[in-house]
Structures
1.
Amino acid sequence: MLFIAGFVFIYYTIWALLLPFLSSDSPVQSLFPAREWAIKLPLLILLSGISAVGLFFARVMLSEARKKAVKGGKKV
């Protein structure tokens, strides 16, 4: 896992920070997607993660509310 994290960090750093300084006809440019994805991809991952955490908290809160309602005799 540490190797994969290190590889992703180095790849993204080269892609986002160092690639603009290379000429567009460099063979290194073909190893990376378009630069617009250097922003879009992390944003999509961040939004997916925040949504997953929010849905998890909502599910836990609803199940706790149902348990309290059953315990108190109410219906939720």
Note: The mean pLDDT is 91.
2.
Amino acid sequence: MPALIPTAFSARILWLGVVQSREAALSSASVPSLRALFAGPEGESHGGLTRLSCSRVTKQHRRGTEIRNVRQFSIVSAEELAEIAQRMQLDHLDPAMLGATIVLSGIPDFTKMPPSSRLQGPDGVTLTIDMENRACTLPARVIEAAMPGYGKRFKRAAQGRRGVTAWVEREGVISVGDEMRLHIPDQPVWSHLDKARRGNTGLAETT
């Protein structure tokens, strides 16, 4: 039986961007289309088949360990981006300041999509959702530099609305205006999820 269910939900791509050098700046540059390769978006500084582990996974890997790169794409929804801006008391929040790769519109409660869901484009290009992209202070610094006094508002405003990270399952071309269809895992929610989240294993960083 199929492991993934094609749904009636789809989203239109409103904006695309690439971070050309994250050492120079987090901000992404707008592009009309991009090639999604197994190593990530072509020309994207966050690409690569592997990456060095960061603070998000220190319970599993010591910082700086080479791991599989499931953060090739940063995807946000236009609806949630507008909500973040409203909570920050801004008329508009430029996705480039967040280092976003894709801005989509059309899928409700986008950030809470099930991990391992797929977004599939017209030519078959397929992105696999890893998980929620947690709000952090890096975009706040970019926002503060452009709009003094607003950067400190970002992290709280973006909690639960920051979008998701994703990696390429099937190569192809992604363009502004494309529709991407949502496919979700044919798997019920684990009945012990709440208990597992409440539990404290007490495990230190792994070596």
Note: Residues 78-87 form the longest helix (10 residues).
3.
Amino acid sequence: MSPHVSDEGITLVELIIAMLVGVIVSGLTVLILVNTWGTQKDVVSESLATTRGQLVASTLERSMRNALAFDVSADGTTLRVRTSLNDNLVCQGFAISAAAGAQFIQTSSTLPAAGTWPVWQSDVAVHGSAPFITRTLNGVAYNFDLTTDGARVHFAGTTTGRNLTGVTAPCW
């Protein structure tokens, strides 16, 4: 008679193979989760930048639509606008600089020097070598980027004044 051999349980080789498969599956799962979190962070950052950029663009466009007069600096970094908002005469200034980002001011009197305007939006930059503001026939073209953790979000457009009188006082 031969001795009785039991086939119950697993061998050491089977245990090692099962552990390796488990480690590989766990590693892939962690990798997928980390990539998903990174992508979500980038999407949220770009979405917030898009919202902030749309705010800059829409405020600038609204100002120019109601402009009575406007002036663009020679280097294209500053726009001054005398505008009529809600039947009130307002002086507004928009500027972009590498150091401060987007600056904005609104006052009923003479605009101070552009470098003293409060920072409105951070992480705003000029797009490539193009100026922030370019004068067109009866308005301006704007061109800027918002930087994010993931990528730069580009904004560009044109807007014209409907009621241009050319009277700049008391704004500048």
Note: The longest strand covers residues 88-97.
4.
Amino acid sequence: MARDIRLAAAVTQEDDRYVARCLDVEVASQGSTIEEALSSLCEALELYFEDEPGPTVPA
């Protein structure tokens, strides 16, 4: 089951690259444009949350 979550991100320019960092979990990515950096960050976050355990429901 897919779920939508909102996460904050910050993009900074470092030399000729843009670095996108998630402010809510320790995941970052980079790209040659802001859009590319954010797109790569989304992919990295999908992989990060794929390995995270789902929420637990109290008994």
Note: The chain has one domain: 9-50.
